[in-house]
Amino acid sequence: xxxxxxxxxxxxxxxxxxxxxPVSLYAEVxxxxxxxxxxxxxxxxxxxGSISVGGRVLAPFGKGDRPTPGFCVGxxxxxxxxxxxxxxxxxxxxxxxxxxxxxLTRWMADYYxxxxxxxxxxxxxxxxxxRSGTRNAIFLEALPExxxxxxxxxxxxxQQLALDKLRAAGEPVEIRMLAQRANxxxxxxxxxxxxxxxxxxxRRVEADLASxxxxxxxxxxxxxxxxxxxPEEAIPExxxxxxxxxxxxxxxxxxxxxxxxYHAFLLHGVTGSGKTEIYLRAMEEVVRQGKEVLILxxxxxxxxxxxxxxxxxCRSVAxxxxxxxSAERGGHWRRAAxxxxxxxxxxxxxxxxxxxxxxxxxxDEEHEGSFKxxxxxxxxxxDVAVMRARLQEIPIILGSATPSFESWHNAERGNYSLLKxxxxxxxxxxxxxxxxxxxxxxxxxxxxxxxxxALERVMRDTLRDKGQVxxxxxxxxxxxHVHCPSCGHVESCLHCDLALTYHRQSERxxxxxxxxxxxxxxxxxxxxxxxxxxxxxxxEKLLTEIEERFPGTVVRRMDSDSxxxxxxHGRILSAFRRGLIDILVGTQMIAKGLDFxxxxxxxxxxxxxxxxxxxxxxxxxxxQLLSQVAGRAGRGPRGGRVLVQTFNPDQPCVFxxxxxxxxxxxxxxxxxxxEHNYPPYQRLARLIVRSKKADKAxxxxxxxxxxxxxxxxxxxxxxxxxxxxxxxxxxxxxxGFCRFHFQLQSASPAALHQLLRTVLSGVRPPAGVEFxxxxxxxxxx
Length: 781
Ligand code: ADP
Ligand code: ZN
Prior knowledge:
Layout: H1 5-8, E1 25-31, E2 39-43, E3 56-61, E4 66-76, E5 89-90, H2 99-111, H3 116-123, H4 126-129, E6 134-142, H5 157-169, E7 173-174, H6 175-181, H7 187-194, E8 198-206, H8 217-220, H9 244-259, E9 263-269, H10 275-288, E10 292-296, H11 304-311, E11 317-320, H12 326-337, E12 343-346, E13 358-364, H13 381-392, E14 395-400, H14 405-412, E15 417-421, E16 432-437, H15 438-441, H16 453-464, E17 468-472, E18 481-483, E19 501-503, E20 508-510, E21 517-518, E22 533-535, H17 539-549, E23 555-558, H18 568-577, E24 583-586, E25 599-604, H19 618-630, E26 641-646, H20 652-658, H21 662-675, E27 683-691, H22 694-714, E28 721-734, E29 737-746, H23 749-761, E30 769-775
Parallel strand pairs: 9-14, 9-15, 10-12, 10-13, 11-12, 13-14, 16-26, 17-24, 17-25, 23-24, 25-26
Antiparallel strand pairs: 1-2, 1-4, 3-4, 3-5, 6-7, 6-8, 18-22, 19-20, 20-21, 27-29, 27-30, 28-29
Helix pairs in contact: 2-3, 2-13, 5-7, 9-10, 19-20, 20-21, 22-23
The structure holds adenosine-5'-diphosphate and zinc ion.
Zinc ion (ZN) binds near residues 495, 513, 514 and 516.
C-alpha cells in the first residue's frame, strides 16, 4: 500500500502546555504592535532548543489569549516575579534576525518611537516569513555502521537497491529523489527506516524557482508597444584607470577599507563624474578581503543596466527589490543569510539584508526621498545605514550629485569626510543649460502649448542630427484639473482635497493619492452647465501634442501608468538605447541615473511644478530634479544641451541648477534654513491626528498640543523645543480622513525624544481617532 507523506510524518496538534510542569527558561517576546514593550513567556521543555533570539514564536496574546506571532528578543533563566503564560511553538527553525540586526532594530524602535516588534516585522520580507519559495522536504540518511542492528535485518531486492543508492550518495538524499534513483515507490524507503538502517528528517529546501510560473513568462511577454525585450547579454564593464579626481577620492576610502572600523564618506560628484566606478573599486576591495558589500540605490534606478554593472565585477550578487515576487525575494534573502553572496544590491529595505560579514555599505543617490518609508516604521534607509555601519564598525559611502542638506551639514561638521568629483570623466563637458522664460515665450494663452517655440526649434535640430530627445514633465495623466468655466467648480476627489486628474487612455478621472476613480463629467455637477474644461498638462497630453507636431517620429511615454506591466520599464529603456525611439517623454522616472550617450537634448517642460508646494524642501527638490535630469544630456562624444522652461528664471534653485552650481545653492538655501530653524539645523518631528470626523480630530489635536505644552514646562524644555500648530494639514482631507498636524522643532534630538516619550507613552486616542508620529519627516503635506 502506498504510504503518503502525511502518514510518514503525522502533523502534530499544537501542544497544549501542561500547566503543572515548571519551566527553566523564559523568553522575552515583542509583537507587531505600537507598544514598545516586551512580554515574558515560559519556554516549555518540549520547545527547549528550538527557541532562539531573533526567531519568531507563537504566543498567547491580547484578548482571549489568541495565538499571536511575535519575535523572541531575549532568553533568560531568571524566573519572573509573577506567573507567566507559555509559548505555543517556534515559527522558525533558526533565528531570522542576526545579532547585529537585533541591535539595529532596537535602535530604530528607540529613535522612531515605535514598537520593536513593528520594526522586526518590517525587516523580514514576506517571502521569508511565509517561507514561500521553500518547502518541507523529507530526507533519508544512511546510519553509520556502528549503530546498525545486529544481526542485520533481511532486505527485499528493492529495499537493498534503495539502501545501496543512499549509501553511494554519501550524504542525505531527499526521499522523492531516492525513490527516483532506486526506481521504487516510498514503501521500500520507509522499510529502511523501520528496519533501523536509515533515519529520516525534515529540512526546508528552496523550491525550484524555475518551476514557479511567472518567473520567465513575463520576461518573454511581448509588450503592446511591440518592442522586443532587452537582450540579456552581459555588457562587460571595462576596468578603467581612475582619473586624478577619482584617485584623490579613492585614496581615503582605500585607507578606511584597509584599516576597518566606522568611517562615513560623502562623495559629492557631478553626474557622470565616475562615482559608480569608485563604488565598484571599493566593492572589489571588500570582496577580496572575503567580506560582503551592501549597495543601496533608489528603486527607480534599480534597472538591469545598473545591476549588470555590479554583476560583471564580482561573482555573486543578490538583488532585493519590490518588483520581485515574494518567493524570489525570499530566495535572495536566504542566499544572503547563508553567506552565499558577496554583494547585495537593493532599494530601501535592503538596508536590512542579513549578511554574514558585512565590510562596506554604499548608498547611491543618497538624497533620494524614496529612501524614507512612509508607513510605520517611518525610517530613513540612509540614516539606518549610517547607524548600521556604526554598529558593525565598517565604512559607509554616501554618493550624490546633489547631496541632501542633512548629509552636507554632517560633512560640514566633520561627521562625514567630504570627497569631491567636480568634473565629468574623460573631460566631457557638463551640458549647457538654457532657461526658456515662459513669461516672454508664451504665445496667446488660448493657444497654449506645452512646447515653446524655442524648445520646438531645438528639438527639430536635434532630431535632424539624429540625436535623441528626453522630455521631463513631472505629472502623469492628461489634464491635471477639470473645471467649470461658469461657476468655477473643480472636480475633486470624493475622499481627498485634491483635484482629480483626467486620464484619457483609460477615460477616467483619477485621484493620484488614494486611487479613487470616476467617469469624466459631461456637465458641471455643481451648476449643471453643459461645458467643462480640461486644463493643466500631464504626460498623456504632452505625448499627444508631440505626436501632432512631430509626425513621423517615434515617441514613447514612461511614467507609472505606462509602466504597470512587469518588464515594460526594461523594454522601453532598451528600445531607447538602441535608437528605436526618438523622443522619450516621462516623469521623474526618466530623470535618474540613465546613461544614454545619444541623448543630445533634454527638455524640461515645466520646471516650476514642485516649486509652489507648501514644503520647506521644495527648492531643494526642484534643484535636485533639474540637476538630475540635466545630467542625462551629453553623456556621449557628441555632447548635449538642456532647455528648461520656467516662469521663475530668477529663482536660485532654477538658475543655479542651470549653472551646475550646487555649492552656491546650498550656501544660499542653508542660510534660509538656519533662519527658520528648519532641518538640518534643527530636528523635526511631525504628528498627524486624523479622523473621519473633523471635530473629533481637532479636539484630540488640541488636547495633545496641551499635553505637549504641559510636559515642556514640567521638563523645563520650553526654550529648547518649539511647538508649531496644531493646524489643518496642507491637504486637509485625505482618503476620507480629516487631518490636523503639528510640528516640534528642536536643536537637541535628545530633548525632543525625551518630550515625545513623556507625552506619547500615556496617550490613547479616543475611538475613531488615530495619530501618527513621523521623526525627521520628508512629507509635509
Ligand atoms: P556617475 O556614477 O558619477 O554618474 P559613472 O561611474 O557611471 O558616473 O561614470 C560614467 C561613465 O564613465 C561610465 O560609463 C564609466 O564606465 C565611465 N568612467 C568612469 N570612470 C572613468 C575613468 N576614470 N575613465 C574613463 N571612463 C570612466
Ligand atoms: Zn483621493
